[in-house]
Write a structure and sequence with these properties.
Length: 271
C-alpha cells in the first residue's frame, strides 16, 4: 500500500514537472524577447505608476523607500493574479487532454501555479537590484518573507481550485473574476501606503488587511523594505485579528481542494 501511494505521487510529480516546463516554454514561444517579458512587464507597469503616484501625486512621500515598497506590492499582486487567472482557465484549456487521458486533474492547477512562482522568482531579482541601487538596509526579519509568499501561493491555489471548477460549467466566470480583481487591486493598498487610510479610519484599514493578499503584501513590505510600512498587527495590536487572514487562507484552500476533488471526475463530460 505504501509503495502504491509512493508510486502514485511520483507519477503526479513527474507529470507536474513536464506540465510546468511545457507551459513555460509555450508562454514565450515565438516571442522576440522571450523570458525577458517576465521582467519587463512589471518594470513597465512600475515605471508608469511611479511617475503618476510617486513623482506627480507624491503619494507615499512620508514612507522611507516607498517606491521599492510599491514595486514589491506590484510584483506580489501580479503573482497572485497570475496564479488565479491561469488557474481559472487551466482545466478548460486542457480539455482535449482531459478527455483522452486519465490522470490527477489537480496537477494542472499546480502546474500553472508553479509557473507563476517561477515568474515571481525572476521578478525578485529585479526587486533585489532596485533595493541595492536604492541602498535599502535589509534586516534579518526579511528571512520571513518567503512565509508570506507561501501564504499568497496557497491562497491563490485554493481560489484556483474553486474558480477552475466553476469555469467548467459557467464560462462567464473569467469576466466576473476580472472585475473582482480590479476592485481588489485598488482596494488592497498596493499603490498607496495603508497609513493613508489608517490615520483617519483604522477600522477600514483593518478590514482591508483581512484580505490575505493585502495582509501578506504589507507584512513583506514591513520586514523586507522598511518597518514604517504598517501591518494588521501594528494597526490593531490584536493577535486574534492578525490570524484571521491566515484562517481565511486555510479555509479557502480546504474548501477549494474538496470542491475540486468532488467535481473533477466529471470534467471530461462537462468541458
Amino acid at each position: 500500500m505504501h509503495k502504491n501511494l509512493l508510486q502514485k505521487y511520483r507519477y503526479s510529480f513527474i507529470l507536474l514537472k513536464e506540465l510546468v516546463i511545457t507551459e513555460f516554454k509555450l508562454r514565450y514561444q515565438g516571442s522576440f524577447l522571450g523570458y525577458l517579458w517576465s521582467l519587463l512587464k512589471p518594470l513597465f507597469l512600475f515605471a508608469i505608476l511611479y511617475f503618476v503616484f510617486v513623482y506627480f501625486l507624491k503619494i507615499g512621500s512620508n514612507i522611507p523607500d516607498w517606491p521599492i515598497a510599491m514595486l514589491v506590492g506590484i510584483v506580489l499582486w501580479n503573482f497572485f493574479a497570475e496564479i488565479t487567472n491561469n488557474g481559472l482557465n487551466a482545466i478548460v484549456s486542457r480539455g482535449d487532454v482531459i478527455r483522452k487521458i486519465n490522470f490527477p486533474k489537480y496537477v494542472i492547477i499546480l502546474a500553472s501555479s508553479v509557473s507563476a512562482l517561477i515568474n515571481l522568482f525572476l521578478n525578485c531579482i529585479v526587486i533585489a537590484i532596485f533595493m541595492i541601487i536604492s541602498d535599502v538596509h535589509i534586516l534579518w526579519s526579511a528571512l520571513i518573507s518567503p512565509f508570506y509568499v507561501l501564504e499568497i501561493f496557497i491562497f491563490g491555489v485554493g481560489l484556483s481550485f474553486i474558480l477552475s471548477t466553476i469555469n467548467v460549467r459557467l464560462r462567464d466566470t473569467s469576466y466576473i473574476w476580472e472585475i473582482i480583481m480590479q476592485a481588489l487591486f485598488y482596494g488592497s493598498a498596493i499603490l498607496y501606503p495603508i497609513s493613508i487610510i489608517s490615520v483617519n479610519n483604522p477600522v477600514l484599514a483593518q478590514i482591508i488587511l483581512m484580505n490575505p493578499v493585502a495582509q501578506a503584501v504589507q507584512d513583506i513590505r514591513h520586514v523586507l523594505v522598511n518597518d514604517a510600512n504598517q501591518t494588521l498587527w501594528t494597526i490593531s495590536g490584536s493577535l486574534w485579528l492578525t490570524i484571521i487572514p491566515f484562517l481565511i487562507v486555510i479555509i479557502v484552500f480546504i474548501i477549494g481542494a474538496m470542491y475540486f476533488r468532488r467535481k473533477s471526475p466529471y470534467f471530461a463530460e462537462d468541458i
